[in-house]
């Protein structure tokens, strides 16, 4: 396993909508003080809630892209997403930096960040359907589209992938994720 002596790995948390990525990341950070979570910039209205993100307009997003404020950016589900350049500061201070990424940008993220570990979070279809319906952000047709995409495979060529099932109890998934990620976590620098 290749790792930078000065930077912690980026831990790309991926999985279908409703799988519990944010809950899993928050729980992992509670168990490991050295883990940090990088907020995404999203062209989603701030009142829509869900994850903790920085809401910007499409014009603001384009301006930030032009200013090279992002380490990584992409479009998905009719929105624009980005990881700010500040992630590099977090990598020098943390044992690992958790970030919610889209499967379609994983190879680019691996090229940009170098030390990338993919934490692929899965769940049974019935668990995903119940969670998507409960959050109320998508209509029935969108829930069906998201469920149909849930089985999309990860791209070939990723160096480090671990999979965790989050169909049931969150704590069970957290323990499994923690065990899988330990080999990549770096000591926190004083």
UniProtKB/TrEMBL annotation:
GO terms for biological process: 5-phosphoribose 1-diphosphate biosynthetic process; organic phosphonate metabolic process. Pathway: Metabolic intermediate biosynthesis; 5-phospho-alpha-D-ribose 1-diphosphate biosynthesis; 5-phospho-alpha-D-ribose 1-diphosphate from D-ribose 5-phosphate (route II): step 3/3. Residues 8-182 form the Guanylate kinase-like domain. ATP binds at residues 15-22. It catalyses: alpha-D-ribose 1,5-bisphosphate + ATP = 5-phospho-alpha-D-ribose 1-diphosphate + ADP. Catalyzes the phosphorylation of ribose 1,5-bisphosphate to 5-phospho-D-ribosyl alpha-1-diphosphate (PRPP). This is Ribose 1,5-bisphosphate phosphokinase PhnN.
